[in-house]
Amino acid sequence: MAKIKLTKTELKAQSDALKRFQRFLPMLQLKKQQLQAELAVIAARMSEVSGRESDARASLDTWVQLFSDSGVKLEGLVTVDRVVTDTSNIAGVPIPIFKRIDTTVAEIDLFATPAWLDNAAAMLTAVLSLKAERLVLEKQHEQIAIELTTTSQRVNLFEKVKIPECREHIRVIKIAIGDEQTASVTRGKIAKGRGHTAEEDAA
After folding, report:
1. What is the pLDDT of residues 36-46, one digit of tens each?
2. CA distance linking residue 5 with residue 104, whole number of Å
3. Architecture per CATH, 8-189
4. Which element (helix H / strand E) includes 79?
5. d(Cα 81, Cα 103) in Å, to the nearest integer?
């Protein structure tokens, strides 16, 4: 236990600290619960988007076969220019929110390429969009998880260290102050007794 002063001033300081920790702890616990709930929501969303991405990629395999048969290359047909995101706040944590992707579709010679090339470009764009959304969700999950770790550490610090430490300090200081008061009373009685004895001897 850290060395503390066994004074009434220190007793007040420790009592104030205890009240402060006890006031903040419920807020930290609530934040921890919110972050845990948000992680579950994001994880479910990631799973759903990943499933859709896998389905879209499976559908795209059909187009890949058609491309290879026709001699048309899929690479470079659609290019992602940028991923557009917004920002939201979850329990004090700023996180990115996926909005859309901006893409460029390669110029298509309608006379020299198959008629289904437009559909293939749309499917490829959908796959790229789902991939971008999944990556943004993964970033959300990472940021929330980091904050949850920090918040959990603070909850543990308050619950297992700071609050018990303050209570122990208060207990020790009260005992010391009580002992000092008892000793002071005893000394007073002894001094008073000596005074009476001195007076009797003088008489």
Report:
1. 999 999 999 99
2. 71
3. Orthogonal Bundle (1.10)
4. strand 78-90
5. 5
Euclidean distance between CA atoms 4 and 1, whole angstroms: 9
Asked if residue 21 lies in contact with residue 170, where contact means CB atoms within 8 angstroms, the answer is: no
Is the pLDDT assigned to residue 115 strictly greater than 70? Answer: no
Comparison of pLDDT for 190 and 139, the residue scoring more: 139
Annotate 80-136 with three-state secondary structure.
Answer: EEEEEEEEEEECCEEEEEEEEEEEEECCCCCCCCCCCHHHHHHHHHHHHHHHHHHHH
Domain ranges of the chain: 8-189
Burial class (CB in 10 A: 0-12, 13-18, 19+), 139: middle
- The residue whose two tokens read 């008073």 is 192
What is the DSSP secondary structure assignment for residue 7, as one 8-state letter? S
Q: Please report how many Cα atoms fall inside a 13 Å half-sphere around the Cα of residue 184, on the Cβ side.
A: 6
CA distance 69 to 90: 49
